[in-house]
Amino acid sequence: HQQAQHPDRRMPHAWRLLLVTGAAAKVDYAVKLQQTLGSASIAEKAGEFSKALSKLSELEGLLSKWRDALTVAQQEARAPKPADEPLLPPDESIEFSVNRTHIPERCTRTSQTGSTMKVHYVGKLVKTGKMFASSFHTGSQPFRFVLGSKDVIDAWNQGLLDMCEGERRRLMVPWTLGYGEEGTKGVPPYSDLQYDFELVELSSFKSKRKAEL
Fold this sequence. Notes:
Layout: H1 11-22, H2 27-45, H3 49-78, E1 97-102, E2 109-110, E3 116-125, E4 131-134, E5 143-146, H4 154-159, E6 168-173, E7 193-203, E8 206-207, H5 208-212
Antiparallel strand pairs: 1-6, 2-8, 3-4, 3-5, 3-7, 6-7
Domain PPIase FKBP-type: 114-203
EC number: 5.2.1.8
GO molecular function, one term: peptidyl-prolyl cis-trans isomerase activity
């Protein structure tokens, strides 16, 4: 009668494979291997060598499956990613419009190109109604800019001319006057926009009386 082979003679090989592949493998395989190793160790201590050898065979099967899974994952990672289809301009877009939603009783000065303006504003995507920008996200501090500068989109420079302090406006902005074909953070390409403004403070202005002369 031939004595069953002691599991210690096969254990080092299994452990070597475990150490080599363990760092890059999925957690579920690692847990299964640990459980199977534990069962083999318990069986060995109990003198159940056939059971211990059976568990070691399971270990080799798990390692083989693990290796196959890693090979597939490696091939998928190396495979070229399909190119994204280019976005095309929409068939229809909104028209640019300026709606004065609140006009103060007194208006002695209005904004002109070169005026420094402080405004509160909220910007939303027309398609979804999702807000993408707001001056209220900066501690309720008004946003300061120079009208006519490159610091803001064309729609602001056109739609906020001749605006009084305390006045509120809504601009409906087609994508051509907004962020165009590239978009920006929170704004996908070719997005029509809605802005609501309130002019809080105006400086470097022209008086309304002089502007009318």
